Structures are given as C-alpha cells and as structure tokens.
Amino acid sequence: MSDHPSYPPYPSGLRLAGRRVVVVGGGHVAQRRVPVLIGAGAEVHVVSPEVTPAIEGLAAEITIALRPFREADLDGAWYVIAATDDRAVNEAVSLAAEERRIFCVRADDAREASAWTPAIGRHEGLTVAVLANREPRRSAGMRDEIMQALREGVISIAQDRTPGVVLVGGGPGDPELVTIAARNALASADVVVADRLAPRELLDELAPGVELIDVAKLPRGRSASQEEINRVLIEHARAGKRVVRFKGGDNFVFGRGYEEVLACAEAGVPVTVVPGLTSAISVPARAGIPVTHRGVAHEFTVISGHLPPGHPDSLVEWPAVAALRGTVVLLMAVQNAPAIASALIAGGRSRDTPVAVVMEGTMPGERTVRSTLAGLEADLEAAAVRPPAIIVVGDVVAVSAPGHDG
Ligand code: SAH
Fold it and tell me: Which of 204, 217, 313, 405 is catalytic?
C-alpha cells in the first residue's frame, strides 16, 4: 500500500454478480457507488448507523445494517468500500479487509487503499474506466471526453452493422432532446429514411457515405406512400444495409411505426426500436404546461385530431372524452380544432376550459397561443396557427408558473 507509492494500479474488471460487496458508510459517497454495484449484480451489504433516503430507497435490492461497523461484517465479502466520513472507521475497515485479503477502496485516502474506483462510462456494451493517478476530477474529465467522443463518433468502436431496420424516435424537434440510443443508431446507419418532422440538424451530422432518403420526396406513384416507405426499408435491408427509419417524437404515437414493424417482420427483415420523446408530453412541458398536476388533473388523453368528430372512420368516442375531467392533448388537430372544441362543449366541458396551442414546440419558431374552448376557433384564425401544433385542453393550462413565457 503506502510503502509502494509509485507503482501504477493493475486494472481488472471485477465480475461481482452474486458476490457479496460490503459498503461501510451510508452518505453521499456510498449513495453513488451502491447503484453501480447493484447494476453489476453484486450482493450489496451496507453498514452504517445512518443512511441517506436514497440508500434507504434501495432497501429492496440490498441489505442494510443500521449500526457501526464490525470486523465480522467482512466475512464472505469479495470487495469492500470504506466510505464513511470518519477517518478512524475507514482505517479500521481497511485494516480488517487487508487482514482478510479483500480489496478495499477508501473514500478518504486513496494512498492507503488497496483498490481505486475508476471514473466509468458505458457505451453500447463497452465499459470505459479511467484512473488518473488519484485525481478524481481528472479521471472524470477524461472519461467525459472519451464518452463524448464515442457518442459523436469521433472515436468509434466496431459499430453494430448488422443489416436490418431500426425505428428511431427523434423527439419533438430540438436536437438536444434526442436520446443517446438514437444518436448511436444514426451513427451506425448506412441508410437513413427521414420524415419531415424528424430533427433535421442531426441529419447534417451523418457521415458522408450515408444515403439519406427524404420521405417527403419519395415518388407517390400508384402505391400509397406508406407502402412505398415499407418497400424502401425492406429493399435496403435486404441489400445488406443498416437502415434507420427516423421520425419525430415517438414512432408508435401516430407515427405508423408499427405498420413498418409488421412489414419488416413479414419480409423477414430484423427490426429494432429506439423509443423517442413524444411531442404529446414534451412540447407542452417546454411551453410550461404540465400534462398532469396534483389536485388539477389525474389523467391525460392523447388524441389524433386528423378526423373531425362524427367522421365515419373516427375511432374516438368524443362524448366519453368530454365526460372525462382530465387533460386532453390533441395532435394533428389544427384543422379540426373548432369541431373538436364544439364536441367537447356539447359533451359537458365548460366553455371556459383553458386551451393552449403550441406551434413548432422546442424549435426556434416555438409560439404559444392561449384560448378557451369557446374562443378557440376565432383565436386560431387570429393567430394564424399552422401545423405542427399541439393543442392542450384542460385546467393544467392555467397552472403555468408566473413569469414562464409559455
Ligand atoms: N410521433 C409523433 C407525432 C406524429 S403526428 C410524436 O410522438 O410526437 C404529427 C403531429 O405531432 C403534428 O401534427 C403535431 O400535432 C405534433 N407535433 C410533433 N412535433 C411537434 C412540435 N415540435 N410542435 C408541435 N407539435 C408537434
């Protein structure tokens, strides 16, 4: 230990699944380590007279002894973390571990410890662990840079290039609101088939060799455009390409995503799904409108307004929706908004029910128009509301925080 200060550590990936790991201490250091240990499958045993609520919340997955450390706590342990804020206790843990030949990390004094915790990151099945010679800030900084470089494809591990289709939800429009999985999928694509509402900025970042197919520009010919899209997806996947089907929001929220899943399955093409942040919730959120709020709305209903109430093909029971008390979130509803507002009033919703219309949510052109069910038609017209827009109906619209510009 301290008598060999200049030797570098010997890196090793501990496989802790099913093995007892003792964490002595129940404060913020323990709180950060325990979830990672649980994630590695370890049988975690925490010993501390007091633990933070976050550790308490993990009680179903770990064992906790609410008392001071005893040497016998280390019986059967494979690994120990001394994470108290009391130097003497950490010292005692460390000595007891040393005697039993169990590797022990010390939160207070790395020089005296037999093991060090690296800064870690995970990316597509890869674990990055950085040890910067007892300088935790430096190791975390280096880890962050490596992770960012991996995410942005500046450095790349052998990408998953198996042929097939990946349905990727791109979120509501702001490129920051795309998931890491979505970015990884785009980085591994040979072909990207993109919708108009998919976040466009991300397409500029595609590697030069990637073929970009804009669905809005597909020839419509005799086949319906969805059939044409299915055909394009299957054709490229069969040619050995990795195809990303990139859409706005989440592919299964009015995105016809599952039709593509079925078409691929029928054609024997492997298909995977990367869920996205749906505009139905995130666009109101960014505009300062919560879809639920304690004491105001205990439910929200997301409805496509592309057909007016009473349309023979409509699957929406508007009188039942009107009879609910909660929030109604309408997508694709700009054109039919007046008819929908009338149906909700006819079904019993108050004429004064607040309504917010959020256009181009999370994007530079975002604009919110506030109205009521009775005033909606005139206000949509006066504000020249155009799609894409989300219409939120319900008392949650009135709870926005003062000063929020939504
Ligand atoms: N799958 C998408 C929704 C597709 S339907 C999702 O989960 O978000 C398309 C409709 O979504 C648009 O007509 C509009 O009502 C809504 N929409 C999508 N993105 C939007 C945005 N950034 N701002 C406002 N409305 C949006």
Answer: 217
